[in-house]
Each structure stands twice: as C-alpha cells, then as structure tokens.
Q: What sequence folds into this?
C-alpha cells in the first residue's frame, strides 16, 4: 500500500515478506541492514486498532507486567517472580530508585523491559547506563527488542555495540564507569553494579 508515494507497511505485509522470503527482490527494505528482526527507522507503518490499543496500554506498568507474562511482548512463556514485578512497578512509578540484589536475580531482564517501555513512550530522550560490562548490559536489552512483535519495535537509526539510536529521537548509550563524563543532558540515568562507580565523578553531578 502506498501513502504519499511511500510504501506503507503493516504486520500482515511484514509477515508475508518473511514467510515468502521476498526480501531479496524488494527495492526498499523495512528492516535495518536487512536484519528481519530490527525495524528500520522512518518507515510508514499502518497499525491495526488492536495494535494501537496495545501500544497505548503499555503506558501502564501493570499492563506491561501482564503483557510480559501473556506473550504479548514475546513467545517465551516468561513468568516473573513477585520481587521482579514489584521492581518493575517501582521503576515505572519512581523518579529515583535504588535496587540492591544478588546476581542472577533477573533484575537486568526487568530493566530491559522497562527500557523498552521508556523508549516507546519518551521520544527525544537520552538514556545513559553505566556498567562494569556495558556491551553485555546493552545486549540484554537488544535480546528483549529482538523478541518483540514487529509492530511494537521502535524504528532503529543506528545499532552499535554500545549505543542505539531510534527514529523517535531517543538514544540509549552504555559506558564503563571510568569512561563516564558529566556535561550532557540525560533524561534517564542508570547505574549497574554501583560499587564500581567513581565517587569524584559523581560528586560533579
């Protein structure tokens, strides 16, 4: 379907392209660098009424929880622990939040879903994450993104090891603590494994 001389995609069309392996014959691709799991930025997309309702409801942290566990966001039959649910609700309702937990508790996974909701609902924002292992941390978010239904994926303008730029103007950057510098506008600031932080640098904030 064409709109203003631009091809307009939809979930149905995307599925046909994938199922029929039509990508090699397309003049223009709706996928970022031909990766069928990444939505290219600035493409025309027609949403169904149901898809629009789902996107609007994701503003609500309790619906986000429901969406995770009812395969709206993935098909992995993911079941959350109560502490994960409580953490996600606190993330979405709090301006400042500190979470202390052991390793391998699934907090990074919950944070990745929170980041998805944040990017979806907050255009033209800057997200900075400090971590001892920044590439590994961003990889967790990427895995969540790749499992999303195509209509829920925010269009990608750049997909790098330590940063992602979306077509709604929002960016995610991950850095090591030693490489962090103050002086830029940050809308969402996340510190992973805060024990590795540099106290002198944080006193500058």
A:
């Amino acid at each position: 379907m064409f709109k203003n001389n631009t091809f307009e995609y939809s979930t149905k069309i995307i599925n046909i392209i994938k199922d029929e392996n039509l990508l090699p014959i397309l003049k223009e691709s709706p996928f970022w660098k031909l990766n069928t799991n990444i939505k290219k930025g600035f493409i025309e997309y027609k949403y169904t009424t149901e898809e629009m309702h789902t996107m609007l409801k994701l503003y609500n942290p309790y619906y986000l929880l429901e969406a995770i566990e009812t395969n709206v966001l993935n098909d992995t039959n993911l079941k959350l622990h109560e502490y994960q649910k409580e953490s996600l609700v606190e993330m979405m309702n709090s301006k400042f939040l500190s979470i202390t937990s052991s390793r391998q508790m699934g907090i990074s996974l919950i944070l990745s879903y929170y980041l998805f909701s944040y990017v979806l609902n907050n255009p033209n924002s800057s997200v900075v994450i400090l971590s001892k292992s920044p590439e590994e941390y961003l990889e967790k978010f990427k895995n969540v993104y790749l499992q999303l239904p195509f209509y829920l994926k925010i269009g990608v303008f750049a997909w790098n090891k330590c940063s992602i730029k979306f077509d709604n103007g929002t960016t995610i950057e991950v850095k090591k603590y030693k490489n962090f510098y103050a002086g830029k506008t940050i809308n969402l600031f996340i510190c992973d494994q805060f024990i590795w932080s540099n106290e002198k640098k944080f006193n500058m904030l």
